[in-house]
Design a protein that fits this description.
The protein has about 290 residues and is of the alpha/beta class. It is built from nine helices and six strands. Strands 3-2-1-4-6-5 form a six-stranded mixed sheet. The two termini are about 30 Å apart.
Length: about 290
């Protein structure tokens, strides 16, 4: 992570603006606070991606909160061309602030802008793994970009042209130290922002079931046709899910299969419809200690 941060800081010196991508289902957990001093006063567009998988009310609340903080946030499903247009409009606002399509950007206090003979503007797309950075660039027309449904697909910095006057750098996702602790770690595991080898799959599945029970959201499991004999004991529920979906492993392996199915369904938005894990006014500390 330290190496990735140094490389990101070096690349930041070469760009005029930043597009930060977060998952709309957990904006607090999927934003890296260590980016703030690196971005400095550069224009920024915050994209709350996968908005179609999040609770619409929660997403509106997050946009309102960011507006209060003078952060321009746009929520969108990157699979919807109409919603991608809002992101394009946000980029247009940035280029207008920077000086339009003609000439170079004006000086920004505290920011050493890149010296180059190139015309137009260069931006950088940043965010945690698997939040949708590469999907965003493809949606904007950035040509061929590495893609996949697992974190870490983008291995190095790629520069892509979005037209004669605009280029974007696509960077690998970067976690932050506190992301490996508490509720933040759980949210990242549930949303697929960290590889499954980096956490206990069964523990993550059990924690998700506990959250559904605490939030009185157990009906989201109706699609698995839980019967009365299954009850609410977490390991038994996970075994039932695996069996229901045609798995036939033995013992704890069956429990792990059920956890994997449950997490995949959460990430794909198949768990009873849109789901938000965080609201702006939640009193949850990022490390998982309730205030």
């Amino acid at each position: 992570m330290a190496k990735a941060k140094r490389q990101l800081a070096d690349r930041m010196k070469q760009v005029d603006f930043v597009i930060e991508v977060a998952d709309a289902r957990a904006p607090r957990s999927t934003r890296n606070p260590e980016l703030e001093p690196l971005i400095n006063e550069r224009p920024r567009l915050l994209v709350l991606a996968k908005a179609d998988l999040a609770d619409a009310g929660a997403t509106r609340a997050w946009r309102d909160r960011y507006a209060e903080e003078s952060v321009h946030a746009v929520s969108a499903s990157l699979l919807d061309s109409k919603e991608v247009r809002r992101i394009r409009s946000g980029l247009q606002r940035i280029t207008q602030r920077l000086g339009g399509s003609q000439g170079r950007a004006p000086k920004i206090p505290g920011v050493r802008m890149p010296r180059t003979s190139r015309s137009g503007f260069r931006g950088m797309v940043v965010g945690m793994p698997n939040t949708g950075k590469s999907s965003l660039i493809r949606a904007l027309g950035g040509g061929r970009v590495a893609k996949g449904d697992r974190p870490g697909v983008t291995r190095g910095v790629q520069e892509l042209s979005l037209g004669e006057s605009l280029t974007l750098l696509d960077t690998p996702g970067m976690l932050w130290p506190r992301a490996v602790e508490g509720k933040t770690a759980l949210h990242l595991a549930w949303l697929g922002c960290v590889g499954e080898r980096s956490f206990d799959l069964v523990a993550a599945g059990v924690a998700l079931l506990e959250r559904l029970r605490e939030k009185d959201d157990w009906d989201r499991l109706n699609g698995y046709a839980l019967d009365r004999t299954c009850g609410r004991e977490a390991h038994e529920v996970l075994r039932h899910i695996a069996t229901r979906m045609g798995r036939s492993a033995d013992g704890e392996r069956l429990v792990a299969e059920g956890a994997a199915i449950l997490l995949r369904d959460v990430r794909a938005g198949r768990l009873g419809g849109p789901l938000s894990l965080e609201w702006p006014d939640d009193n949850d500390d990022p490390d998982g200690v309730d205030e």
